[in-house]
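User: Predict structure, ligand flavin-adenine dinucleotide.
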Amino acid sequence: MSERYDLVVVGAGPGGTSAAYYASKAGLRTLLLDRQEFPRDKPCGDGLMPHAANEVAMMGLGDWLDEPHHGRFSGLSIFTKTAEIRQGVPPTLHGPHGYVIRREETDLKLLERAEAAGAEFLPRTRATKLLRSPAGEVTGLSAENGGPLHFAAPLVVVADGVGGFEGKMKAHQNAVARRQYFRGVDGPNKEDIQIFMTEDMNAQGAGYGWVFYLGDGRANVGAGVSTGALAKSGRNLKDYFDRFLEEPKISEWLRDAEPEGPAKSWSLKMGMWGAKTSGQGVMTVGDAASLIHPISGEGVGYAIESGRLAAAWSHEAHGRKDFSASTLSGYARQLRRRRAREHLSGHALVNLLPNMDLVEPLFKACEGNRAASRALVEAFTGDAPVYSLLKHPATFASALKGVLGNRLRG
Ligand SMILES: Cc1cc2nc3c(=O)[nH]c(=O)nc-3n(C[C@H](O)[C@H](O)[C@H](O)COP(=O)(O)OP(=O)(O)OC[C@H]3O[C@@H](n4cnc5c(N)ncnc54)[C@H](O)[C@@H]3O)c2cc1C
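Assistant: Predicted complex:
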């Protein structure tokens, strides 16, 4: 066994860097490792919802967020088969707006903050196994970096995204998404992020396409669908993405645009579903804990938040000199209290309905009602559970009328 640490964090995405930052600030000797070299790209929409921007600002990057080459949005435009909804985003202490910033840049900045707080970072180092005592207690981690490495620690935070290096904690992926950068996209309302619930993506499952503007003349254009939609349709993600680019509005906006670099795909673990978030000597954060919002596909803010909570529980466990499953279950409970309502209700909506086309009348009903469309946007941004729409009975009644009308016509 070589070096001894208070905490080893596997993965230097937003979840891992946040855990390492807060743990180091709390005085824990922290090792952060990643199998990749930074800066590195991560296929993403690059959108930071207001609550995510707030988390980034809490890590000392508030001024950096406002750099002019970053996209900044204050509203959402949602286009569905029959409705167009525009709404402002919910405010936070950082302000009533979100950002669009390339992950290559965001993740490097977050890593620099973790290192400045005192975390040691090892790139090109792949975690291979949790080490345990004969009694089953975590004693450290083995990894590879051209050769085998061993680190002693009583606690490990798993922040390896969809990696799943610790098989016992691995959750299933339930969506896939693909994105490409374009220069010169010409659509209206560039102060909004643009969401397209297309018929193509929602007839046999759930999905949406997006156009998110950066501040430097480029836009992040992408599409994501549930794995259920892929299974039912027998189509692949590239096919959904290519058809999204051919949607009338998108092809018009892209008429004079130039692609920059290839389209890239990645998978998503959503809705806190089936994820084990704590055990003896170990906690999972971010995508490793299935913390992507099941409706918006947004995960950066939740990854940072969960890293912050896991660091607090690491500090607590060291204070008590107790790394038992029972102590660390406090982290799992806190996470559930904070996020389960939004995530599980979104997961239920996406999975219980055979397709999202069924809720089209609800979109149409929200279009004419400011308060209901606000609730819809808050459900999308993760600021409210989807069932908060039930507080708008008139909208629901009108949506129900729409559903029944469609059924009778069909
Ligand atoms: C196409 C697409 C669009 C998206 N759009 C948005 C969006 O607009 N806004 C948003 O908030 N979220 C979005 N998401 C979700 C978001 O990208 C993730 O939720 C976020 O990256 C989670 O951060 P993380 O730290 O948990 O994991 P990651 O960012 O995936 O980081 C995990 C890290 O672990 C490392 N790693 C993996 N295995 C090992 C190992 N064995 N040893 C060492 N290191 C390892 C990897 O190299 C990686 O650096 C999108 C996702 C996709 C796929």
